[in-house]
Amino acid sequence: MFVANQITMTYSHVDRIVFGGIVPLGAPISLPDLGKTFGTAYFLERREMGVINIGGDGSIVVDGVTYDVGHEEALYISKGAKELGFSSTDAGNPAKFYYNSTPAHASYPHKKVTREMASPQTMGDAKTSNRRTMNKYIVPGVVDSCQLIMGLTKLEEGSMWNTMPCHTHERRMEVYLYFNMSPDAVVFHMHGEPTETRHLVIRNEQAVISPSWSIHTGVGTQSYTFIWEMAGENQTFPDMDHVAMTTLK
């Protein structure tokens, strides 16, 4: 996801999600002209965007207004924003802006979300190796958005499973970005239909797309952190189709 002094971008037909990373070193990095790619006058003409910084301190300029976005802080950028610029406070410890963008039908105010503003929820148990805290950054009640939902989940030391017992949500898709992993660590990310699961080997700062019909869970060789993003029919966070452990194959 993250390449020094570049913008990476992945586009998926699954709910038209766009995601990638931005790592500015020297001069600020601006989004290129993407109107032709998306058939619009500019990138966010019919889209909204959420950004979470997993690196050093940085800033984002939205149509001339500067937002300082520190480590593990987020910025919601509304539909209609035309000019976006990304910079790092210290090139020796650059910001790593992870962004997601989804189609939008209305404009809501841009909003910065600090770690203190995020809605935390601790769940799981050390006995089942899945003790973790979910921080909800872009969700109803914290940020108004059209369909974009984003958050960050941290596993406690000694816990390695996320989202287990697992679920699907037929009405929303999801993207996971795994990070805070050592170079020799991996996460075995499970996906597929509950009765025919598969796995991918995911390394530090790699992301995986999960369509709505697929489970999404993972187990690592150490604890880790991941950012999740959802888009689809609704923003009802508990709208999940839970899968019984006896069903999994």
TrEMBL record:
Pathway(s) per entry: Glycan metabolism; pectin degradation; 2-dehydro-3-deoxy-D-gluconate from pectin: step 4/5
InterPro entries in alphabetical order: KduI (IPR007045), KduI/IolB_isomerase (IPR021120), KduI_N (IPR027449), RmlC-like_jellyroll (IPR014710), RmlC_Cupin_sf (IPR011051)
GO molecular function, one term: isomerase activity
EC numbers on record: 5.3.1.17
Primary enzyme class: isomerase
Catalytic activities: 5-dehydro-4-deoxy-D-glucuronate = 3-deoxy-D-glycero-2,5-hexodiulosonate
Tree of life domain: Bacteria
Isomerase as UniProt keyword: yes
Record key words, sorted: Isomerase, Metal-binding, Zinc
Cofactor binding annotation: Binds 1 zinc ion per subunit.
Binding site residues for Zn(2+): H167, H169, E174, H216
Signal peptide: none
Cofactors that this protein relies on: Zn(2+)
Claim: Protease is one of the keywords in the record: no
Protein family (similarity comment): Belongs to the KduI family.
Function: Catalyzes the isomerization of 5-dehydro-4-deoxy-D-glucuronate to 3-deoxy-D-glycero-2,5-hexodiulosonate.
Protein name (record): 4-deoxy-L-threo-5-hexosulose-uronate ketol-isomerase
Annotated source species: Candidatus Dactylopiibacterium carminicum
